Amino acid sequence: MSRQSNSPLSGLKLGLDDLLIYISLIALLAFGVAVRLLPLKWGIYLDEFDPYIQYKGAQYIVENGFSAWYTWFDPTRWAPWGTDQSTAGLPGVPFVGAAVYLLLNFLGINAPLFEVVVFFPVFAGGVIILLGYFLGKELVNRGVGLLTSLILAIDSTAIQRTSLGFFDTESVGMIGMLVSLLFFVKSIRGKTVPYAVVSGLGLALMAISWRAFLYTINFLALYVLIMVILGRWNRRITTSFTIVSSITFLAVVATPAYGLSTLVSPYTIGAYVAFLACIIRTLAEEIPDPVKRTRFTFGTVVSILIVVGALTLSGVFGDITGKFLAIVNPFSRIDEGVRTVGEQFPSTWSHLFSTYRSLIFLLPLGVLYALKRLSGESVFLTLLAVTSLYGAGSFVRLMILVAPAVAIAAGYALSSLLATVRPVLKQKLDRKSKASLLSKYYGFLTIALIAVTIVPVVADSPGIKYADRPAMIVSASTGMRQEIPDWIEALAWMRDNIPQDAIVGCWWDYGYWINVMANKSVIDDNATINGTQIVQVAKAFLNNESVSLEIFRTLNVSYLVVYEPFTLVSKNPPLALPPWYVLGDFEKSTAMMVWAGYNSSDYISPVTINLGGTLYSYPLPAGPKAANTTLYQLLFYPYRDAYNQTLGIKISAPQNYQLVYISPSNGWVMVYKINYP
Description:
With 677 residues, the chain is an alpha+beta fold. It is 58% helix and 7% strand. The chain has a domain at 486-674: Rossmann fold (3-Layer(aba) Sandwich). It has helices at residues 16-36, 50-64, 85-88, 92-106, 113-139, 142-154, 156-162, 169-187, 192-207, 213-229, 235-253, 260-263, 269-284, 290-313, 322-328, 336-339, 349-356, 359-373, 376-394, 402-426, 434-459, 462-467, 486-497, 511-516, 531-542, 545-554, 585-596, 630-635, 640-646, and strands at residues 73-74, 83-84, 503-505, 521-522, 559-563, 567-571, 574-577, 605-611, 614-620, 657-662, 669-674. The strands form four sheets. A five-stranded mixed beta sheet has the order 4-3-5-11-10. The chain has a two-stranded antiparallel ribbon with strand order 1-2. A two-stranded antiparallel sheet has the order 6-7. Helix 1 (16-36) packs antiparallel against helix 5 and helix 9 packs antiparallel against helix 10. Residues 1-11, 333-344 and 431-438 have low confidence and may be disordered.
């Protein structure tokens, strides 16, 4: 007698291929999460700098409620003026951190907020790996989906932005972006409205978390325009894009940091052009002759593009400035904020190759295969590859956008190659036929080449090496794989010993740490939102005491913090050199010169040094203005006698700056109290 199963899974048929796919995906998820947890062996810390201000925002929301964000004025940032946080930052990341914390508490998991935001990026990394699989599967097939997951699991940029402690824009924004792209593709195939709503919500999440949403909305607009021009438009595309852009723009208007000025600007005008192109194509449906319909659509859309392009270039919709101008036109890097921030430098070919190895060569092959088909998916894939590579080439921080594009395009090339050799491998080998034998060898050679292509990407991934390091605050901002407690010691001292109402001066790089961890007011920080004040700080550091005291008095500064990871080369008398391979304030003084408009040769000059019997030409504070430069007086104060006696470099002792603290471990962080005359 047969027995019928009543299990709800009894109708589920799971083949061997399905089982292997799911096992592989789970393994990739586990691997990707494990890699991102490697910094845990050094402790639970936030990484880099920006995550600290995101944590502060989440903490404020937990204590005061989500609505309080929109009226939050923070007097401790950019003192003595303070900062309107609702317009200075985006709410997405702190909102998500606070929401996850409150949800966990509701479920009875009483984890501290700090630990929640430290571990959230690891969770986000797992979600991104999973979404990468579904996007690759949707555009090509499941094999390409797995390759996309693999690349996202080991990609150095993805790991950096979703590793333990990196609670910042990308950890939330990439989830929103991949959700938006995935469900947009699904929406133009079926269930248009519900899928488009999900896509719009994903892009809205990205918009309130990361300004790179402008890439995604313009990418979708470009895709819609190309489909209209190629004559592959359908009503689903219009419906989907309208829903996605409408939800996104509602989120933009509701975000004070954007407002109406972003809604109608050169950054978003592409979306309106795409929507207008859809309307024109819809009206063209009334033209019965397909040839005339195509000509009318093409001519009208091209005319609109020319007119809007001319208006945009003339500045009618506003000016494209700063980092956005640098992305659109890499040759326009005239803004100091772009030229002096490492993550805003252009990417290099060596960076791309070291990350993706031979997959980078398969990318154009995948694009060529896609262009042969010109289906909706292949056009989408081609545009994703080309636009993400262009954006990342202009801006190294956008390298994270390249990972899914490289994986999907390269996977498409590999999939197409396998499709051509699969019939050859399946045919029976006729030993009398040389052609048959050669075909068989060709098939095996192709598979071997594919294996050689993928293995180095995994075996020599720089991403895994990058993940295996402590948080920057643990390594004293060096990025080395060791604990160097100077900054942790200094921040603890500042928290306990500097008066609560005091204002601390520093170069902007350490502003978030001092503000959040030491709980002190700072005159500048990593947001670099006040260019005028940055210029004033740069001038104060690079001038003599009379000038610096006047500037710092205007800003009500009571204490100054300087940092330099000196390398000790002599103990008697103590002589230490700035390393240059790790950027302290001496090395960053070249960036200060860019902001202040000063000539570096006035401050830094090469000096011949004898180290262990070998002569080196070493850049040191030996320029004509260096001796009385406030920053150099503070940095080199402990070593000024040795610099004078051994190297012949005279650096004056500060008169009105009193050294009140030097980090005990290495002496890298120094705190000076200003004694105004």
